Amino acid sequence: MGFRKKSSKNPPMLSQEFILQNHADIASCVGMFFLLGLMFEGTAGVSIVFLTLQHGVTVPATEEQASGSRSLYHYGGKDLATVFFYMLVAIIIHATIQEYVLDKINKRMQFTKAKQNKFNESGQFSVFYFVSCIWGTIILISENCLADPTLLWRSHPPNMMTFQMKFFYISQLAYWFHGFPELYFQKIRKQDIPRQLIYIGLHLFHISGAYLLYLNHLGLLLLVLHYFVELLSHMCGLFYFSDEKYQKGLSLWALVFILGRLTTLIVSVLTVGFHLAGSQTRDPDALTGNVNVLAAKIAVLSSSCTIQAYITWTLITVWLQRWVEESTHQTSNAKKKRSLTKGRSSKKGAENGVESASRVDALPKRKEKSS
């Protein structure tokens, strides 16, 4: 997403231009109200709902972990308040990265407006995907998901999640929800809004689905794979914008993209299609995270296959557009070269014709003088 730079003029208070220029400061002020609420006894109970994770349960220690009890979490309605607060944090971080990093690079590189918007979008997503990949990988390692793949379809205890797992999902939901007001803050063009809405909506749908169905480890692994491929995509875009000689990196990214999509499909089919097919529950209860039913398996598999097909189709259309643009550009350059060469050859031919005519006319005149 692009970023609207602040102008030297001071717009009227609470006008549209004032909100667009100072939306990060406004979000900071709103967040400060929740922080100040912790200082007073009457408002501390309300403020803490926005700041900390809710719906926690103390679980007694097991035989493997004999050192006291631990706190686990499930989801509930209070999570919406927490998502709202961290959505404000995402808006502030978005504006900070734009102002102190991307804007300075734009001044040095002197991009056009079209390249500047694409560069800002790739820069913002690159930071988010990089942090999410590292954070998600740390969670997978700390919860032994890589050492014990069976945790992808089961958890101990069931229908619960750890603090770091829930905080990761809350942060992911907050980031993608912040994309909706950013469409207004950055004054995205009308023709680009449908694409942005689809992109944001698909991420929210699948992240919230994994969160609500307690497919936390499976969703986390798929997110890390997806974010890694997207990170390479936007990094290649950043290098391409800085210098067009890095165009070969885009072809390398296309190969990684296809491999990432295939890996995601294989993991989804193996986890949901086979390992959740062990026993069928007659009394499904989606609210408690019981997804071991045929309808839930079909929904998860179809959703995963649909998003992978959509992303792959988007890649194919983008590359086809680039191929058509490059072919038209090459044909236009070839036509220009042909017209230039024809013009030069015609000029040379005319000069040669004049010279030959003068030579032919000169000979008979010399013969007449001799006679």
UniProtKB/TrEMBL annotation:
Bias category Basic and acidic residues: which stretches? 362-371
Membrane topology field:
Multi-pass membrane protein
Comp. bias regions, Basic residues = 334-347
Domain TLC as annotated: residue spans? 117-326
- Keywords on this record? Membrane, Protein transport, Translocation, Transmembrane, Transmembrane helix, Transport
| Region of interest called Disordered, as start-end residue ranges on this chain | 330-371
Q: Where in the cell is it found?
A: Membrane
Protein name, per record: Translocating chain-associated membrane protein
Native species: Oryctolagus cuniculus (Rabbit)
